Amino acid sequence: MASKVKLNVQSFPRPPALQKISRDIRITFRGDTIAQTQDAYWVLETHHPPSGFPVMTPISFGRALLSLQPLMGTAYYLPRTSVKLALTPTGRRTGCEWKGTATYYEAKLGDGTTVANRIWSYEAPTPAFEPIRGYLSFYAGPPWDCFVDGRKG
Questions:
Q1: The domain containing residue 119 runs over which residues?
Q2: Which residues 6+ apart lie within 8 Å of 34 measured at CB?
Q3: Which tens digits make up the pLDDT trace of 43-95?
Q4: What separation in angstroms does the CA of 73 have from each of 8, 44, 66, 81, 88?
């Protein structure tokens, strides 16, 4: 396995940069590969370290868990053809001043589990992010495992 490259997140650009990468990106569900590619993009943004996939942090009020939100993570974008899941848009949209409006999806996994709003894409990105039009990104963590060059993210 190749050694890790040390990157200084303070030197990442703002606005973020989009880079084509040839790292092996693999996502599994209960040991079965549901997505894999060596033809992905990643977004490099100031103070957002390349952690493999977005690190999720719980947002809660009192004892109630309200949601999981991405915290300081680099997103990888995979070609839709590398994803072995049927996806249905959920209607959820979020905006990014740099990339445009994200569309979120629901996926039905092999055991019948339905997962919503943990996969997204930019269907009409800004001109600078046109290369990721239709590419998909996954939030890391349950119910799947995400790997970059064989290392779990």
A1: 9-144
A2: 27, 28, 83, 84, 85, 109, 144
A3: 876 644 443 444 443 333 444 443 333 433 568 899 999 999 999 999 999 98
A4: 14, 9, 20, 24, 25
Separation of alpha carbons 109 and 119, rounded Å:
13
CATH at 103: 2.170.150.40
Q: Which two tokens stand for residue 44?
A: 């490099």
Residue 59: both structure tokens together: 């947002």
Q: Is residue 129 part of a domain?
A: yes
Extract the tokens encoding 77. 């974008």
pTM: 0.76
Is residue 153 a part of any domain in this protein?
no
Secondary structure (3-state) at 69: strand
